[in-house]
């Protein structure tokens, strides 16, 4: 991929860097956060130590996925960033739809295609010198899924062969443009500006789900979307509750 082409085609005010290989683009940008002067997109052709939520690994094969991180500064209290992963999901869905790929969103940070995971979001934060917070938004997206990699992952995952045939610079520029616009909107209006859009893309509305933490069921009920803070709304035996984002997983259950 070509950094200058991505930067020019996206028309976003974001510096773009492309490296052939690194361990983790998130780790790289977090290590540089104290010296960053503006938003930076770091794209890795291959990532050898990609991370997902709750310490999980993100496995990818060279040329078969997109792995990148975007560092963006917010002058907001940390608690107001709770809905950020969901807003990023909306931005990804918008960009993919414009490219001809329809997806759904799974709370709190997964993009699904045909019911299986196509992309994941990991956001890590660091205090900025002089005030504010740097959010490093890491994204891994499957384009092709070789059988041996799916076997290593250990579950069915989605791929998007149509995206794999696109010019990579065009695809990355489209994703960056959508992300930059969404992050600017989030900075001004918070997740409330995204909640209705997220709910329209919700993968499991009205489905019975369980909220798990390290395999233990914390809550069980009917998924009813999210509120304006990004909390999951769950209708259970004792009424509606809100579930905060955290080290939990969402699993469908049979009625």
UniProtKB/TrEMBL annotation:
Every BPL/LPL catalytic domain range: 1-187
Enzymatic class: ligase
GO CC terms, sorted: cytoplasm
Entries under Pfam families matching the protein: BPL_C, BPL_LplA_LipB
InterPro entries: aa-tRNA-synth_II/BPL/LPL, Biotin_CoA_COase_ligase, BPL_C, BPL_LPL_catalytic, Transcriptional_repressor_C
EC number: 6.3.4.15
MF-aspect GO terms: ATP binding; biotin--[biotin carboxyl-carrier protein] ligase activity
PROSITE patterns from the UniProt entry: BPL_LPL_CATALYTIC
Catalytic activity, reaction form: biotin + L-lysyl-[protein] + ATP = N(6)-biotinyl-L-lysyl-[protein] + AMP + diphosphate + H(+)
Keywords of the record: ATP-binding, Biotin, Ligase, Nucleotide-binding
PANTHER family, A to Z: BIOTIN PROTEIN LIGASE, BIOTIN--PROTEIN LIGASE
Protein name: biotin--[biotin carboxyl-carrier protein] ligase
């Amino acid at each position: 991929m070509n950094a200058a082409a991505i930067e020019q085609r996206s028309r976003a005010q974001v510096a773009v860097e492309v490296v052939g290989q690194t361990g983790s683009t998130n780790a790289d940008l977090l290590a540089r956060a104290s010296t960053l002067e503006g938003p930076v997109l770091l794209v890795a052709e291959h990532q050898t130590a990609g991370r997902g939520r709750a310490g999980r690994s993100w496995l990818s094969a060279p040329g078969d996925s997109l792995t990148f991180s975007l560092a963006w500064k917010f002058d907001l209290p940390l608690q107001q960033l709770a809905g950020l992963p969901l807003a990023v999901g909306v931005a990804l869905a918008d960009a993919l739809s414009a490219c001809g790929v329809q997806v759904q969103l799974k709370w709190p940070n997964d993009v699904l295609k045909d019911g299986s995971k196509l992309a994941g979001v990991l956001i890590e934060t660091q205090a900025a010198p002089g005030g504010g917070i740097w959010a490093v938004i890491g994204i891994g997206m499957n384009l092709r899924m070789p059988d041996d990699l799916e076997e290593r992952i250990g579950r069915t995952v989605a791929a998007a062969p149509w995206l794999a045939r696109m010019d990579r610079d065009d695809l990355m520029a489209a994703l960056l443009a959508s992300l930059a616009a969404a992050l600017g909107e989030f900075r001004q209006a918070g997740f409330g500006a995204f909640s209705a859009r997220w709910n329209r893309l919700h993968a499991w509305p009205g489905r019975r789900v369980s909220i798990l933490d390290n395999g233990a069921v914390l809550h069980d009920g009917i998924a009813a979307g999210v509120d304006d803070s990004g909390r999951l709304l769950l209708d259970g035996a004792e009424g509606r509750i809100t579930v905060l984002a955290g080290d939990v997983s969402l699993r469908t259950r049979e009625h």
